Structures are given as structure tokens and as C-alpha cells.
Amino acid sequence: MRDAYHEELDSLTNKLVLMTTLVRSAISRATTALLDSDLQIAESVISRDAEVNATFEEIETSIFELMARQQPVAVDLRMVITALRMGTDLERMGDLAVHVAKVARLRHPDTAIPPEVRPTILQMGQIAETLVTKAGSCIASQDVESALELESDDDAMDKLHRRLFRNILSKEWPHGVEPAIDITLIGRYYERYADHAVRVAGDVVYLVTGARPS
């Protein structure tokens, strides 16, 4: 009975790692759709979000059943609590990738990204992928030291977010209001995506140590 119980806990971990893989693919493809004005890729990000949602629903169902049948305590209780929190954050990351893809779809066949901010958006997409990849590794390994490193990686995303605002607010900005609104929203989506990845890593720290990172 206990072996089956811990297999269920291990299954939660595996599903969370799967979610990190899915949302990493989503943000990668959303960035490509945005920069290349690729409608087909944008549509694929939007339609495949159902897989992220379905995986989270499986996690939720497993957690509720475990709570009802096993009444976990101590570390096991932390596991189910953090699994629910991490799943929620990862599901939201998938939604944010969809938001990016929807901007690409809205502006197709034109691009939402003016030339002068393309390098910044590309970097933001790359950092987003790095963060979620590290978050997945932390979930799998329960490596506290690696989890704590995500905070500094997120600092790089914040700097790029501020750079976008400097571009938009510059007197030399030639593109008008609508592109500025697009860039403001897109920058926020990437910044929030990174924040959720950091929260996932923080939950790994809590799971292992019983304390939140300061």
C-alpha cells in the first residue's frame, strides 16, 4: 500500500516536469510566431494549451484523491501542497504563452514587433525558456541550490522589461500608440512568465527545507 502511495507521489513529480516541458515549448513557439509573424505556429500554441490544462487537471485530481485517501502529513503533505501550487503556476505560464501567440495572430500578416525592439524580445524569450528548463530540473532533482539561482536569472528578465519601456517612452519612438500597447503587453507577459517560474523554484525550496526562500 505504501509503495503504491509513493508511486502516486512520484507520478505528481513526473507530471509537473511534463508541464514544464509543455510550457517551455509553448513560450519558444510563441516567441517564434511573434518575431516571424507565423500564423500557423501561433495557432498551434493556442490549440495545444489544452494539453497543459489537461495535465494540470490530472494533477489536481490526483492530489484531491491522495488527500482524501491517504491524509498525508509532514513531507508528504508539503509535496501535495507544493504540487498544487506549482501546477497552478505552470498552467498560468501556458496561458501567458498563449497571450503572446494571440498578439502574433492579431497582427498577422504584419508583425507586432518593430525592428528596434526585436533583439530585446528575442532575449526575453530565451530567458523564459532558460528559467522554465531550470525549474523543471529543480522539480526533478529537488536541488535547493539550483532553485535559488532562478532569482538572479529573473533579474535579467526584469532588466529587459525596463529596456522595453525605455524604448517605448523615448522621444525617438516612431511607431505610435498601437505598437507601444502591444509591446507593453508582450513585455508584461514575459515578465510574469518568469515570475511564475521563480515561484515554482521557491516551492521546491519549501518542499525540501520546509521554509520559503527569503
UniProtKB/TrEMBL annotation:
A Pfam family assignment: PhoU
Keyword Cytoplasm listed: yes
Transmembrane found in the keyword field: no
Domain PhoU: 18-103, 121-203
Keyword list, A-Z: Cytoplasm, Phosphate transport, Transport
Taxonomic superkingdom: Bacteria
Cellular localization per UniProt: Cytoplasm
Family (UniProt): Belongs to the PhoU family.
Subunit-structure text: Homodimer.
Entry function: Plays a role in the regulation of phosphate uptake.
Identification of the protein by name: Phosphate-specific transport system accessory protein PhoU
Organism: Nonomuraea guangzhouensis
Gene designation per UniProt: phoU
